[in-house]
Amino acid sequence: MKKLLGLLGIAVLGGALTLGGYKMFFNDTVIIERTVPEKTQTVQTNYNPTFTRNSTAIAAAAIDFTLAAEKSLNAVVHVKNTAIRTQKNPFAELFYGNGSGTRKFEQVGTGSGVIISSDGYIITNNHVIDSANEIEITLNNKKKYKAELIGTDKENDIALLKIETEIDLPYVPFADSDTIKVGEWVLAVGNPYNLTSTVTAGIVSAKGRDLEGNTAIDSFIQTDAAVNPGNSGGALVNTRGELVGINTAISSKTGSFVGYSFAVPSNIAKKIVDDLLEYGAVQEAVIGIRFSPVDNDKIVGVKIVGVEEGQGAANAGLQKEDVIVKVNNVKITKFSELRGQLTAKRPGDFVNITVEREGKLVTKNVKLSKKVKRFISKTFNWELKDLSKNELKKNNINNGVKIINTGERESKDSLKNFIITKINDQEIETADEAVKILENVAQSRYSIVIEMINTDGEKERLRFR
From CA 350, how far away is CA 196, in angstroms rounded? Predict the structure, then answer.
């Protein structure tokens, strides 16, 4: 027993000596590391550590769409277009007599519209109501009204309607579409697939967008808000519920939304509405230039390659080779943006146009001129104009129109400045009439015989097949 206790004492003493020696020579803390799985953190992608609690709340409120939706839902309507079509069966006409093969039927189309005044004026797309015999408006409260067509602008695809009601209607106020920015939130409100009161959200993807193959409208607002068939004519509004555009088109190979939609800017739409109410027709303004894309990488804008004598640009001192970079402090990078600014103006208005000239910026105050209507036959690639009384007297004729431009380079065989007097034995009085006849006969694929007076005053008959 004494032997066992002695061994235990020696062991305890050895351990103490060992620990004391370790503490003497290695007086550092011993750390034992181990890996412990940590809980995964979720971090918002818009996290910014400089935001305070109040600024975060303000940012969240800034993208709250409920106010804009409430303001616009009751002001966007369903538009029903009923057209009466006539269909003929040539075999029934042949065997059973004239009129027996004729059948009339209704064709119905639908779209959207936006109430823009409390007394019932409604804006929509021209293609929504085109060729309509009857237009019916359904409000968001399901009440139906017959609409009167006040006027249309086919070129910009805008139409103005009017309904008579016993109460003041909710409406969407116009915003200044020039101030909207790429990346700004917008709502598309309409009636896709006959689903009433549908709201979708997106951002402004681009401005001044021109669509390839669409020569009529080239100053769209492009968004990624979902727009589908039936949304045409509906409202594009900002987060304050103000109208920034009229939804018009989608880019799609399937007929349904695949990512982008396009709207006519509100400034253009408002100007068209004002013209239709005041004049009954759209007043188109031009500055009187010929243009081309800029071929200089250092300059962005619209290059002037010629000015029309007696028009605003020439009178204000704009010159060939000037590059337009701003209109009323709105930056211009391409012609579609320039046209968008001009479409929102009237003849007689003044605009400040800033050009880059020999490395310097020059600003001119330009009075806009009225656009002269052009008469162009796309089939023949001719531009025609009416003859003045003096021109008729000089050529000793009673009627006719002049070919003032052709699509080919001038040569000895050019028809430029020839005068058309007859088309297929029909006397021609106006350039408008001549273009319609040329296009109709060309589409029917009949041969065309055109009587002309050449530049030497001699009569010629030309046959086209």
Answer: 42
Nearest partner of 349 among 366, 336, 330, 363, judged by Cα:
366
* E strand segments, 253-359: 261-265, 285-286, 289-293, 302-307, 323-327, 330-331, 350-357
15 within a domain of the structure (yes/no): no
Q: How many structural domains are present in the chain?
A: 4
The single residue of 153, 157, 210, 322 carrying the catalytic annotation is 157
How many CA atoms within 13 Å lie on the side-chain side of 442? 13
Name the pTM for this structure. Answer: 0.68
Catalytic status, residue 232: yes
Check whether residue 417 and residue 439 sit in a common domain. Answer: yes
Helix crossing, 335-343 with 266-278: angle to 10°?
40
> Among 72, 78, 112, 127, which one carries the catalytic annotation?
127
The catalytic position among 112, 205, 219, 232 is 232
| Helix/strand/coil for 251 | coil
pLDDT digits (tens, 9 = 90+) for 427-437: 999 999 999 89
Do 264 and 297 belong to one domain? Answer: no
Backbone angles phi, psi at 278, to 5 degrees: -90, -40
Identify the domain containing residue 319 by its residue range: 285-370
In the annotation, is 78 catalytic? no
Q: Does the residue 39 lie in any domain?
A: no
Residue 34 domain-assigned (yes or no): no
Same-domain pairing of 204 and 261:
yes
Return the residue matching tokens 């967008």.
209
Same domain for 325 and 307: yes
Q: Read off the pLDDT of residues 164-204 as tens digits, 9 standing for 90 and up.
A: 999 999 999 999 999 999 999 999 999 887 767 789 999 99
| H-state helical runs in 26-98 | 53-62, 66-73, 90-96
Strand 382-386 with 375-377, pairing: antiparallel
Question: Which amino acid is present at 253?
Answer: K
Same domain for 265 and 336, yes or no, is: no
Residue 303's Cβ-side half-sphere holds a number of Cα atoms within 13 Å equal to 12
